[in-house]
Amino acid sequence: MKNQIKLKVYYDGLCKVCSKEINHYKRQVGADQIEFIDICSSQFQAAQEGLNPHKIHKIMHVRRSDGTILTRVDAFIEIWKVLPKYNFLAKIANKRFFKMGLEVFYSAFVAVRPLLPRYANASQCQDSPYCELKNG
Which residues are bridge partners to 62 per DSSP? Predict the structure, then answer.
């Protein structure tokens, strides 16, 4: 019997750092309960998912099975709750002091992410909403 999807994870498949982390999560026990959605795929339409097309390219988003959207550090905590190997990290990250530190780190990552290597070449980048955010 196939496991029920508990979480949808929206990620930037053109971001090398982002993809490396997501590929790691995909190999973990419990990953079959997560649907990983590449927001840079030609099939992805943010509006059809009820998501802001600019915000989805700036910060991490996940959707629980009940439809609740979580972003930023809360999104990662939700991923860690689904993956048994990372349950301990979800518990620690929910502590106020640690969560504040993670939020600072995440904000710094969001600021430098446009400078990180991407899989797209310049012509592919022109079609990506993420690149519009970076250049616009």
Answer: 9, 70
Residue 63 in contact with residue 92, Cβ under 8 Å?
A: no
Tokens 């022109």 — which residue?
A: 126
- Answer whether residue 46 is part of any domain: yes
- Report the distance separating Cα 67 and Cα 129, nearest Å: 24
| Confidence (pTM) | 0.84
Task: State residue 131's pLDDT score.
Answer: 52
The pLDDT mean for the chain works out to 86
In a domain, 127, yes or no: yes
DSSP-derived secondary structure letter, 41: S
Look at residues 119, 94, 109 and name the one whose alpha carbon lies nearest to residue 19: 119
Please give the Cα distance from 8 to 110 (Å, whole number).
20
**Residues of the chain whose pLDDT is less than 50?**
1, 122-127, 132-136
Structural domain range at position 113: 7-135
Name the nearest CA neighbour of 46 among 4, 92, 12, 88.
Answer: 12
Assign 8 to helix, strand or coil: strand
